[in-house]
UniProtKB/TrEMBL annotation:
Pfam families: BBE, FAD_binding_4. This is Berberine bridge enzyme-like 26. GO terms for molecular function: FAD binding; oxidoreductase activity. Residues 1-21 form the signal peptide. Residues 75-252 form the FAD-binding PCMH-type domain. InterPro entries: BBE, FAD-bd_PCMH, FAD-bd_PCMH-like_sf, FAD-bd_PCMH_sub1, FAD-bd_PCMH_sub2, Oxid_FAD_bind_N. Keywords: FAD, Flavoprotein, Glycoprotein, Signal. The keyword Plastid does not apply. Belongs to the oxygen-dependent FAD-linked oxidoreductase family. The lineage of its organism: Eukaryota, Viridiplantae, Streptophyta, Embryophyta, Tracheophyta. Its cofactor is FAD. The keyword Flavoprotein applies.
């Protein structure tokens, strides 16, 4: 007990200035620390899991996964405590003590939440549970599965599937960006280069370990199929804390083929993108071709133009790929010299823009840059006509910054075959492709100018994308769609944004929430509220 009080005194005194300035009678970080230490080991090693604002470790841990500086504003509420648990009992204790002391928990794995909701709040002080220590990956080559910790990155998962397990014909359909955290990606859906063959990442989850709102440790059998359904595409942070997922690995051939072909306005970009819209969702399910559109050149010098980069992964060899393209998309003009054969592992490095084909690059968790960005998303059900594309190009050419980009990922194939109610991710049959609208800028520039431009571009695109509702992808979170009111959530109000992410699955998600977390302990600005007829 003496050791426990010594640790507590140090932590509390270090944080006293912050606590005095931010807490109310309803929240008590001091009491949480006491409760947590009493509920776990009172050793120095346990105390090192707790990071308080005035200690050096606090800033180091907090900044380690910040991807969007825009979210760190003077008005943002920083974590009262950052907890870096090392085992499930620490997470269970955090939930029980947090509820007892009126402190909610936000969970962070890779830190890629586009609006920073995993790191900061617009409301009361909270505990940031950083799952950096839950990063193990255990591959079972015999049954083709893997248990992956929620704090691992997608790059770490890819690395351990191929290098750690020495399996050159196993892969997993997930993100191109290797620093994305497993928990956020899988619990929000997970789209990538192999989704046309194998569906989303969440479609391939077969089990999970979760701490619920009562602090109970659950697996698929004990949590029941309703909660298991909800955490696969519904955003797990609304329902509990996922510690690990069990996933089915998928077959990849020993040789895959990649290419990137770039075209500009003078090379019939409008015609090619128009044709791509009709062809890409209907191609062989082994073939994925996405398009990245952006403005390049100098506006003042008069050489600004639109560039479209056609990037592809084909699960097979060069000659088979060229044969398919010759029949289905000859207009693109892909030649043998444009195509590179490689292993699937090396294709993940190719798309991650690794400087060389060194698998250890996938283990790098560092942010790409300390910059700000804003993103939005859309789903397209009907091809945008040529005149519409030309209007979009004109809008992009007048953009406030060269870093604006449209990333268009084709759906179809397996994505058409899976029912939209199979998991909460509903964007299936009837959708041709998804668009991510992305705009980045240096941190020292006026953010409002860029945010206003992105909003105007999004409004401009309304005639060309899905309607009633205008659908959006949860993993490209957009707070402009709506937010929960501070300190409370309303099911009726939340449908404004919830139905955009989940369509008709939103009501079922809210019903699951009412069942597993009726007191709404797990909540944030876009968390799913308990279902209510009011």
């Amino acid at each position: 007990m003496v050791a426990n009080l010594t640790i507590l005194s140090f932590l509390f005194l270090s944080a006293s200035t912050f606590i005095d300035a931010t807490t109310t009678n309803a929240t008590n970080p001091h009491a949480f620390i006491q409760c947590f230490l009493n509920s776990t080991s009172s050793s120095n090693s346990t105390s090192k899991l707790l990071h308080i604002p005035s200690t050096t470790s606090y800033a180091d841990v907090f900044n380690s996964s910040i991807r969007n500086i825009r979210s760190i504003t003077p008005n943002a509420t920083m974590p009262a405590i950052i907890l870096t648990p090392t085992n499930a009992s620490h997470v269970q204790a955090a939930v029980k003590c947090g509820k007892a002391q009126g402190l909610r928990i936000r969970v962070r794995s890779g830190g890629h939440d586009y609006e920073g909701l995993s790191s900061v709040s617009s409301g009361d002080p909270f505990i940031l549970l950083d799952l950096i220590n839950f990063a193990s990956v255990a591959v079972d080559a015999t049954d083709g599965t893997a248990w992956v910790g929620a704090g691992a990155t997608i790059g770490e998962l890819y690395y351990h599937i191929n290098v750690g397990a020495k399996n050159q014909t196993a892969g997993f359909p997930a993100s191109i960006c290797h620093t994305v955290g497993v928990s956020g990606l899988l619990s929000g859906g997970g789209i990538g280069t192999m989704m046309r063959k194998y569906g989303t990442s969440a479609d391939n989850i077969v089990d999970a370990v979760v701490v619920d709102a009562s602090g109970t440790l659950l697996d698929r059998k004990s949590m029941g199929e309703d909660l298991f359904w909800a955490i696969r595409g519904g955003g797990a942070s609304s329902f509990g804390i996922v510690l690990s997922f069990k996933i089915n690995l998928v077959y990849v051939p020993p040789t895959v083929t990649v290419f990137q072909v770039q075209k500009t306005l003078s090379e019939d970009v409008t015609k090619l993108v128009g044709r791509w819209q009709k062809v890409a969702p209907r191609l062989d399910d082994n073939l994925f071709i996405r398009v990245l559109v952006n403005a390049i050149g100098n506006k003042e010098k008069g050489n600004r133009t639109i560039q479209a980069s056609f990037q592809s992964l084909f699960l097979g060899g060069r000659q088979e790929l060229l044969s398919i393209l010759d029949k289905s998309f000859p207009e693109l003009g892909v030649e043998a010299k444009d195509c590179t054969e490689m292993s699937w592992m090396n294709s993940t490095l190719y798309f991650a823009k690794a400087p060389k084909l060194d698998p250890t690059f996938l283990l790098n968790r560092n942010p790409y840059s300390n910059s700000s960005f804003k993103a939005k998303s859309d789903f397209v059900k009907k091809p945008i006509p040529a005149e519409g594309l030309e209007k979009i190009w004109k809008f992009l050419l007048e953009a406030v910054d060269d870093s604006v980009q449209m990333v268009m990922d084709p759906l179809g194939a397996r994505m058409d075959e899976i029912e939209e109610t199979a998991i909460p991710f509903p964007h299936r049959k009837g959708n041709l492709y998804n668009i991510q609208h992305y705009l980045g800028w240096p941190t020292n520039e006026d953010s409002q100018k860029h945010l206003d431009w992105m909003k105007s571009f999004y409004n401009f695109l309304a005639p060309y994308v899905s309607k009633s509702p205008r659908a959006a992808y949860l993993n490209y979170r957009d707070i402009d769609l709506g937010r929960n009111e501070k300190g409370k959530t309303s099911y009726r109000k939340a449908t404004e944004w919830g139905q955009r992410y989940f369509l008709n699955n939103f009501k079922r998600l809210a019903q699951v929430k009412a069942k597993v977390d009726p007191d709404n302990y797990f909540q944030h600005e876009q968390s799913i509220p308990p279902y209510s007829i009011n």
